[in-house]
Design goal:
single chain, about 140 residues, mainly alpha, 3-stranded parallel β-sheet, two-stranded parallel ribbon, globular
Length: about 140
């Protein structure tokens, strides 16, 4: 299994840098598991692009409708919140991103992200092995 975060999920529906690599992740036919947080985060990112007229309403609606069906499993955030809080405190990074790391760790999986700030934050920590850069994945 692989844990994609919202930065990757948005690229499945909206053309951005490395969208083709995000699409490759879907084509691998490997089960994708994510915290339920991904739904709100990806929809919010798409809404921000809709608001700036970078995408149309149909594209926004497509992401909101299709994203839950794209994931093989959606895990309640509460299941990994405590572990995420430990990670967030240790790396001094927002808990939102650490929820994905905690899920990857709990499932012995890899988090795939396009969030370069998160990738830098985990460098040199025990969680570096759980986080993969989409650009290099």
């Amino acid at each position: 299994m692989t844990v994609p975060d919202a930065s990757v999920a948005v690229k499945w529906f909206i053309l951005e840098a490395d969208s083709h690599k995000a699409q490759d992740l879907l084509r691998r036919l490997e089960p994708l598991v994510a915290p339920d947080l991904i739904l709100a985060e990806a929809a919010n990112a798409a809404w921000a692009q809709l608001r700036r007229n970078l995408i149309g309403r149909a594209q926004f609606d497509a992401l909101v409708k299709a994203l839950p069906r794209t994931l093989h499993e959606v895990v309640p955030t509460a299941d990994v919140l405590l572990a995420a809080s430990v990670i967030a405190a240790a790396i001094d990074h927002p808990i939102y991103d650490c929820i994905y790391i905690a899920l990857a760790e709990a499932r012995n999986d890899i988090l795939v992200t396009a969030d370069t700030k998160l990738i830098r934050k985990v460098a040199g920590t025990p969680w570096r092995k759980r986080v993969a850069d989409l650009a290099k994945f």
